[in-house]
Each structure stands twice: as structure tokens, then as C-alpha cells.
Amino acid sequence: MAHLTTMPELEPGQDRTMILNMGPQHPSTHGVLRVILEIDGENVVRIMPDIGYLHTGIEKTCEAKFYQQVVPLTDRIDYLCPLTNNLCYVLAVEKLLGLEIPPKAQWMRVMLNELTRINSHLVWLGTHAMDIGALTVFLYCFREREDILRLFEAVSGQRMMTSYFRIGGLALEPPLGFFEQTGKFADRFPAKVDEYENLLTGNPIWMMRTKGVAKLAAEDAIALGASGPTLRGSGVDFDLRRDMPYSGYENFKFRVPVAQDGDVFSRYMCRVRELRESIGIVQQALQGMPEGPIKADAPRVVLPDREKMKTQMEALIYHFKIITEGFAVPEGEVYQAVESPRGEMGYYVVSDGTAKPYRVHMRAACLANMQTLPKMCEGRLLADVIAAIGSIDIVLGEIDR
Amino acid sequence: MLSIETFVVVSVIKIVIALFVLLTAVAYTVWLERKVVGHIQNRWGPTRVGPFGLLQPLADGIKFIFKEDLTPPHVYKPLYIAAPMIALICALTSIAVIPIGNWVTIGGVHTPLQITDLNIGLLIILGITSLGVYGVALAGWSSNSKYSLLGGLRASAQMVSYEVSLGLSLIGVLIVAGSFSLRDIVDGQGGHFWGFIPKWNIFYGGQFVAFFIYLISAYAETNRVPFDLPEAESELVAGYHTEYSAMKFAMFFMAEYANMITVACVASLLFLGGWHGPVFGPPILQAILPVFWFVLRVFGFLFVYIWVRGTLPRFRYDQLMAFGWKFLLPLAIANLVITALVVAWRA
After folding, report:
1. Three-class SS string for B314-328?
2. Given CB atoms, is B152 within the 8 Å cutoff of chain A?
3. What is the ipTM of this complex?
């Protein structure tokens, strides 16, 4: 495979082959991925992914915003896990500021992040199954996703673009009854996972379509920078939550699912087991939820409560200053990585000492994961390309940024 | 014997009724599918047009007729236009030889409940439905689009391959019945054995393996889940009918459902005892009940179709071929040989 150009053009290599353009408008390229295939009958000879159809310029836009104004932009990068983006960004800025986050905020962040992971995996499972022809799983997954979105709406006022985390803590106290609702969801969710597994795991057709298909060797996965379930499906035991804990993940007990075969089925099993582990983390967070404030004690950075603004002069001044001129962040650069549902999501923030970031770069887990696509698909059948794309779980918003 | 005038009038009436019933059945099979799959998937299906969405097929039909009839500039026009017609005509013609009940006397005319009772009815059905593959293959080729071409290729290969095991699975029944006439085959399945089990071929003739082969091959023949590769939307956009719109697309759609109904009718006639069932009451009820039992079987078969669609993922092309040639075909041949031996030994 030659290098990636902005407009890749493939010429037919032999007389027998045909160039097939798949996407950017195609039912199963998960958004606007364009894949150019050279096929010999149904066999894929070469494959070249082409990206850039969802370029939003968010990285550049960040440079024109105050630090706190970047948070809503991060929602829109990987739109399936907005809270993970929020978390990664605020952790990076908090590292620059040297802020200490109160435990309740940390535990809430962990809990909501795991709900986000479940949310994202449900969308993945539904669409992946639909790509392989199992239509019903899609609607079952979206049924449970709806419950999670309701929880997000309760806590942040938004279903998808949550922007719930703030530099220094959380935006709002969780509403009354939120923990009970979440607890009820966590109790009934494992039975629902059984339901999905009844339809797929062990289904002979599903096994035929996924076992031994689109194999990715561990060396290749590491060499291409894959992470998340794409990496763990190839037998590499690496999870940032456990290996480089952030936001208090070291307080939680969970297993990191790893599968050895490196095929579509392994990646499927990794994610399905992660669904169960994540709901376990949510339950632990609910049981051990500490009491206390949800914002750090840093009046120059954290917006004051409404109550204080009406009674205290200083609070009103701080509020006015943060809103109108932001807050200066000490000079320096920082890289913060978190384990997103798709792999290592990283935010690289450079500060020049002003109230606006000098540069914000996002490391997209999907971008690196997608590079494994040619390794998985070349020499296989057309239908396997669809299964492989589904098993990588790409989100084009994150790839193109 | 009927006079020639009566024969023509009766035949025309029967053709009109059969066509009307078939097209209505096609429309309501679509409705049934949307309803059943909807309920399997935690949804309601159509609810807005008429009570329980019952007028939805009508609304869909009107929509198809009034849509702009697009012909893309890059197609080979004669075949592009002919292909959906071939598909639909082949799908509708086979209903001509399917009997749906016993002989009846209406207004002094004694006539069978089928358009024509041929002594080679089954061969006609097999022949005409095989011609249907031309519609699909030509649509794929004449559209001059890569997705259509792949869809057309897949469809032709799949339909030709599964035709073999489908045909072989039916031969077992033919050996047991000793006739090609669908009416004779059904008549042979009347009565009970061991007191209560009906003498349907699936039980009495020992043709349950054949039924299993027929069931699977029929799914492949009609391009239905889990064998819906020719129109696998997640791979080939819409397969062979990617470039079709409006009424031309509707023709393919109707052909697929008409084929499903034909296949369900053949299954009911050959394996499930046709219209046999308890018949009682006044003469009018005695005339209607067999038809009712037959329709019930057909809908049962269609329901299984829809149920499977709500449950299973799709095969891959090579797996489909391997399954057809390496598993179904040997099984069908074994079934045929064993049936032949048993019948010969009994004789």
C-alpha cells in the first residue's frame, strides 16, 4: 500500500480487478468514511480508507476560545462519548493548573464515564450487528441507550452534547433521585446484555461471520498504534484505566477483558465483556459515592454558586471576570490520555500563559485504529470489509476533528 | 365437461380473482412483515394509516405509482426496463397451477379451486420461478453500476445453486406421491395414521428432512434473511435494484413477496397436507374450510420467514455457496436415495 494522499486514486492493477468506491455515503461506513477497494470478483485485493469528509476544524477553533469555552466543543469530536472527551480535556487543563478535585466530583466523573462507555458500546453493538445482518439487536441496544440518555439529560440537561464536566469539578449537583435511577438501571442492565448475547454469541451464523475474520496480529496492532478493544482483541493487555489511572480509577475493582485471536469475534467479546465490567464500576461508584463539594476550591477558575453571588461581593467579581476575560493558565504543555470506548484518547494542550489555549491537539484513537483496516481486509472478501469496519468501531467525528 | 364458452368465462373469472387475491396477499404480507418484525424489535410497525396501519399497503402503492420514474443515463435501457417485468411476471405466473381447495360447484358449474389443473403443475412452478433469475441478473447487468453488478452476480449464483437442492428435496415427495400433479399430491396426504397423526408428507412420507432442505433452499431462492446477500444493504447498498426507483423498484419488491407466497403455497401443498383439515357444518362452511386451512398453513410458513428475518444475521457469500453445495446437496441426494429405496421395498 502506498502512502495516504488527500485524494487517493487507485488504478486497477490487473485486468481482472475492478475499483469499487464505497462511501462517503454508504449504509455501513459509519458516517462518512470513504473506502476505495480494488476487488477481484468478491475478493479484496487492496483497500484504501479516505478520510476528511467530516472535518470540523475544532482543533483550530479551540485556539480562539477561553479555556472553559472549549468544553462544549469537545462534546462534538467523538459524539458517541461526549463525557469522555469532556473528562480528557478538563483533566489536561487541571494538570496545567495543578488543581485538586474533590472526591465526589471524581467519583461522579468515573461513574458517568462508564455510563458513556456503555452508551457508546451499545451504539457500536447495534450498528455492527446490523452490518452483519442482525437487525433486531440494533433496536434492543437503542432501547437501553435511551435509558442512559435519559440519565444524562437528568444530570446535565442534554441527551448527547452533555458538557457536564467543568475545569475544577462538575457543572451542577446531580438532581434528586438521580442515584436511585442510575442504580435501577445498573440492576437491570446485565440481564439485557444476556439478551444481546442470546441473539449473537453462539449463534452459528454470527460465529461464521466473525470467527477468524479480519485477523490482526498483536505486533501489527502495536506497530500501527492501535488501542482500546482493537488492541485488546489481539491479546495485548493494556488499559489506561488500570495501567495509568486517572480521576480516581485506582479506587475501583474491575477486570480488563482481553481476547487472544485478534479477529472480529475477539473484539466483539472484548466489548461485550466491557459492558458488564463497566456496569460493575457504576455500581461500585454508586455504593461508595462520597459526600462533599463538587467543585474545587479555586475561585479564580471555578464559577461560584448562585447563592454566593447574591450575598458575597468577591464571588460576583470572580464570576464577572471568569465570564468576560477567562482565567490565565500557567505556561506549559501537557498530554493527558484517557481510555475512551475506542481506545487511547489524548488531549495535548499547550498554554502560553494567557486565557486561551495556544494549541489543543486531540489524539484520536479511531484514527490509529483505522490504519489497521488494510492489514485486516486485504485478501479477504467484500463482506469481511464491512465486518472489519464495524469491529474497529470508528467515529468519523473523532478521526477528522 | 364444460362447454367452451363456459370454460373461457370461468377461466377469466378465476384468473382475475387469483391475481387480485395474490396482489392483495403480497401487499398484506409486507404489512404483516412490518408488524411482526416491529413487535419483535420493540416497535409498533405501521399504525398511522387506517386502524392498525391496515391501509399502509394502499398508501405505499399510491406513493410508488406517483413517484418520478427515473431512468439513470448510464443504463442499457431495453433490458433495464424489461428486467423488473420479467421478475414480476415470472413471480405471478406460477400461481396459475396452485390449487387452493377441492372441487366446488358454483351456479351449476363444477370446477377446481385453481386456474388450471395441469398434470405437471410442479414442473411448471419450478420452471417459471427459475426464469425469474433472469430478471435479477439482467437488472444487475443493465444498470451498469458496480453494486448492481455484484448484487446480480450474487443473486444468479445463489439462485442457480440452491435450485438444485430445492428440486432434489421435492423429488422425494414426488416418489412418495407418484404424480407431478399438485392436486394428486395433496389428495395422497388425506387421512390419519396411528389414529391421530395426519398423513402429511412431512410426517407420513418421512419427508421431514426434505422439508428442512426445502425450507432453507426456499429462503435462498427468494433472497430472504439469512440469505439476502444479493440485496445486502450494508454491503451492496441495495444490490441489483440499486438503480431502480418508483414502480420499477416496486415490481422487484412485489416479485420477491409473490415468490415468498408461491414458495409457501408449494410447501403447504407438498409437505403440510394442502387443504386437509377438519371439515364440518353446513355445505357453505364445508366449501370454505379447506381454503381456510390452506391459507392458514401459508401464513404460518410466511410467519416463520418473518420470524427468521427478525432473528438471524446474514451469511457470507462463500459460506452460502459452501452450505448449499457441501451440506444441502449431499443431504438432499441422501434423502432422495433413502426415500427411493423405502418406496421400492414397500412396493
Report:
1. CCCHHHHHHHHHHHH
2. no
3. 0.79
